[in-house]
Amino acid sequence: MLYRLILLFFLCISNTVWSANTIAIIDDTNSAFNIGHSGSYFIDNAQTLSFSDIASDEYAKRFRPINRDYLQFGLVKGNIWIRTDIAIRTTSNTPVLLEVNSPRLQYLDIYLPNLYENQVQAELGGARPYKNRKIQTPNYVFPIPTNTPPVFTLYLRLSSHLPINAEIELKTLSNMSLDNQKNLTFTGILIGILLALFVCNVFFFLKTSRSMYLIYGVFLIGIATLHLTLHDQVSQLFPNQINVQERIYNLAALSCLCAIAFFSRLYLDTKEHLPKMDKVLIAIGAIAALFAIIFTISPEKLNVMALSFLIVSTLIMLTVHAIVAFIKNVPFSGYYLVARLTLLTGHFAWLMSVYGIIPSATLFQWGLTVTIIIEAMIHFTGMIAQTTPSLQRRAKKTKHSQTEMTDLLSDLSSRLRRQINIIGGGLSHLEQAAASNDTKLFLNSSMTANNNLKNLIERIELLNDIKESTPPEQAAPLLLSQLIDNAYNNVQRLDQDNTLIDLNTYKTDQVEILHNAPILQHLIESLAQEFKHFTDQTLTINITRHDVNREGITLLELSCYPLPARVYTNTTSFDLGMHYITHLIQHLKGEMHLSEGDLTRSINIQLPIRVHIRPLNNHFIQQNQLDIILFGQEDNDLQKALTLLQSHANRIEHFVTLESLLEHLGLPEKREAGSIILVFDNGGHIPHITQQRLIPLMRHEDQCLLISNNVKMSLDYAKKLGFNELLACSELESQLEQMLLRLIQKGDRLKNASLSRIKPLRKTP
């Protein structure tokens, strides 16, 4: 019985072998035939055999049947010879083509000995110019001559220092056109998905200015380029160059690797959460960028195994990084871990198809692109989650319950407030009894410290109210300019370090805040207190109101720079510094972005606000006591300014010579009111000399406006000369009233302040 089973087994094998096609036939019923079913192959490892040797009877017996649809030989050091017999039996004159789908093949020679003996009929491959192809398509296509005998022999020689994967078929012209349409349709779908992701990414980058989205866009471009090179759809752009497909493939693959490394830093904020791993990611990105240049310039001098090892080892390290981040509960690390595991698994399967371990043409042609698109979709989902406020709050919640935290804050504020009241009462009593100047100075410092403690209690209570969803209510609308003044005065009252703060405002006049005014004021105060410098360096705070956008939202932009080195965003800490500021911004439904340049670190905050705009009037100007002084020669511009100022109740003076103006100003302490000085750049006056003479005589609240018809004069240069603002003569009628109103408001604000002046921002077009 055993012998019968063995005999049956060998009989089945022999039947399978002999039933295989030995001739590739194209007729009226078969419009395509895979050469793997009829062909045989022989490997010349030494690359010394000529076509005459291969076609001889001695080597004809050494050919082995292929007997598979997809030819995957992996890395072969030598020439692969493929031989098959072909019969064309179509009744119509339908063109028949030989199609070799092997985009990374370097050398392909085609022989038809029955027609042309030992002469090679086509020399194709990536190591040869694209113009060598008779039919310019992504694959290597060779038209079968019409004068062939009923049965003829075809020889192919394949050679490459890259893994050889090929799908060789005989097709009619119509069949090949249908297959190309299917491939192009699927490619168009994949490129369309990448394009949609890229457009969304550009939108997020323009909205948030986060470099993470810019790097992500580079990654998407690399994916698209990588897919096109895998299908050899870029060589036609460089018809006279060789190895173009391989060079662009190497550049795209390693550029994607570099982008993934730097994208990972920003996606998980490794600089904050995993500082050691952050340095590793920087090194990985730099190494990938270096090898991208090397493999692009000289791809043939380096082993392709080194490229594969570099990519695989990098993906493994990034996966380890994802696991560590997930274990340490880094925000949004779950999305990142899923994306890393997806890419590692998909790339590993694709790599096995490249080296012939998994024989699959579909996996080789489409597997990598589909895998990376899935990974990109996972990253994109995570990035959307990072921009969703509800998910941000969920990711940043503390380990303690909400009830425990609010109880702690309430108890802490009540205990501190009782002690502060006792200390404040004692200091007030001592202040009345103090006699010496040293004692008064000490008491003033103590009162300032007590005020700071009161401010800390206010922060705790406000934070507690927000966490309990009971924020302070706003009884009536509050002018935004008044809100800024209150915040500025409170910062001055709490200052213990003689800090320098340059507070700039733009388009904040006649604006009433209808909602969340107390919280907004606390936010401005906290920004000034937390970001101030303990040196002579000035902290600049810009406050700008943007007009209503298409969504019907008015935005208030707060920009602070340069930030001290101690300031950083830590999403895991719970404190009254950056956490408090971040919590206020989240409650106001705003966005915060921290940017780091080469020399300056800055923070930008955008808050949606509900406002009411008051009509512009001169009521405020008529109430103040600041004088208006015009200095310059009488010309059309000065007369126009005088005409515009006739409706103001302020005292207006005009001086033609600088000496008379200086004599009028006299010493600053002898003047009863401050002045708004309008300096006209006419009549030969030199602005910087005029300002040098004026500055020693100006009071703290004095403002100086330069009115010039010099188109080369810039606001930055005017401020360097010492002027507070710059106004072009052509803008007198449209801007003088608003400019004068802002300068008077600033002068009134600075009248009793000891901090830096509040200067307006440059007017944007």
From TrEMBL:
A Pfam cross-reference name: 7TMR-DISMED2
Tell me which positions the record assigns to the signal sequence.
1-19
Protein name per its UniProtKB record: 7TM diverse intracellular signaling domain-containing protein
Report whether Membrane shows up as a keyword of the record: yes
Q: What species is this protein from?
A: Marinomonas primoryensis
User: What are the UniProt keywords, alphabetically?
Assistant: Membrane, Signal, Transmembrane, Transmembrane helix
Q: Mind telling me which residue stretches traverse the membrane in this protein?
A: 184-206, 213-230, 250-268, 280-298, 304-327, 334-358, 364-385
Coiled coil location: none
Q: Which InterPro entries match?
A: 7TMR_DISM_rcpt_extracell_dom1 (IPR011623), 7TMR_DISM_rcpt_extracell_dom2 (IPR011622)
**Residue span(s) of domain 7TM-DISM receptor extracellular:** 38-170, 185-382
